[in-house]
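Quick start: what a row looks like.
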Amino acid sequence: MSADQLLTALFNAGIAISIGATVLALGMTFTVGQLTAPLRRVGLVVAMVGLSAVVIPAIAWGIAVGLPIKDTYVDGLVLATLGAGSAGAIKAAQLAKRADLPLAVSMVVVLQLVNIVSVPIWAGQVVSGASLSAWDILKSLLELVLIPLIVGLIARARYADHAREWTAGLTKIANIALVIALAAGISVNWQTIVDLFGSWVLVASIVIAAIALALGMLLGRKSAETRTTTGLVSGMRFGSLGLIIIGTQLNGNAGYLGPALVFTLLDFVLPLVLAIEIGRKTAPKTSAAATATTAS
């Protein structure tokens, strides 16, 4: 196994463990009723679906085409933006602290189901003949979200006395795995990023990610928790679906793969950094409130 293969394996394993542990911990924290309650906010759910599955890919395509970027780079970049509802957004919402975690979980599940219809349609428009099977999307949803969530809910129901202790341990595991994944992901893709420094791909990737975050936050309106959650969920795209299309339908062509990797990595890191910053600003207020309560 080469160094790049090892780093790629560490990145994939780290992301899977981090997200799986986070969702498992959330299953031990909330009830089924709490996790499904956000779906009653029909207007918000419909708006998020429209924004994430239609508006953001269209904006991404417009930005990529409007900048002086090679055609293959444009296609690779846009393919990486098509998938909505990255499970990583659940981890980002947890790190932000000031977020609606049940809403994050519900929206990720809904958006990944919407991907079954929207991603193949978009992919065929971007690159003629490109597509993605429904099973590829469902498998990711099952492995990263639904199975860990169900296991967590069952554990909470049967072992309620231990759930809090297990949740704390799972959160630590998730954070460690995330750090390892980020370090490995940046290391293995560093040369690709450097190679594209002279192009507009980096600029386009940052602009698309920023717009996706901003539009999602606008949907949250006056509620800080909802605003943070919708921003992170809409901003963190499910780039892996684009990478699967490039790998299986386009033979891993470097012209498509390079920009897709750059966007996927940047769009994962930037929302996480934002989430951590939001969490840092929230923590002191929480501590101050706790101190005031203790003093009284």
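That is the whole record. Residues 42 and 293 are 37 Å apart (CA to CA). Residues 284-296 have pLDDT under 50 and may be disordered.
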